[in-house]
């Protein structure tokens, strides 16, 4: 048995991406952030759809069309494939734990 809140480091100098399950059509990741954001230039432009939930902390996602979504603990979001987006902020006060499910 595993727990999504186990082995979370106290110091997170860069985001941590951990694959939990990977199949041909599905990928589940635990992402750990602590104050990080996406690089200034460029957008995530993924071939897969993404469903993401914040389990602790918070994250701010900006879309290329200017929309901004703030996700707090328990809140989730669906991002269509090729919907350009980036993370503009995560909590500095606590570690942000995300669960992301990518699928085709």
Could you list some keywords that capture this structure?
50% strand, Cupin_2, mainly beta, RmlC_Cupin_sf, Cupin domain-containing protein, single chain, Jelly Rolls, three-stranded antiparallel β-sheet, 104 residues
What does this entry look like structurally?
With 104 residues, the protein is an all-beta fold. It has one domain: Sandwich (Jelly Rolls), CATH 2.60.120. The protein is built from no helices and 8 strands. It has strands spanning 16-22, 26-33, 49-56, 58-63, 68-72, 76-79, 85-90, 96-103. The radius of gyration is 13 Å and the shape is globular.
Topology:
Layout: E1 16-22, E2 26-33, E3 49-56, E4 58-63, E5 68-72, E6 76-79, E7 85-90, E8 96-103
Antiparallel strand pairs: 1-2, 2-8, 3-6, 3-8, 4-5, 4-7
The CATH architecture comes to Sandwich
Strand content: over 45%
Q: Uncertain runs with pLDDT below 50, 5 residues or more?
A: none
Alpha-beta classification:
mainly beta
Domain Cupin type-2: 43-102
Protein name: Cupin domain-containing protein
Pfam family, one: Cupin_2
InterPro entries: Cupin_2, RmlC-like_jellyroll, RmlC_Cupin_sf
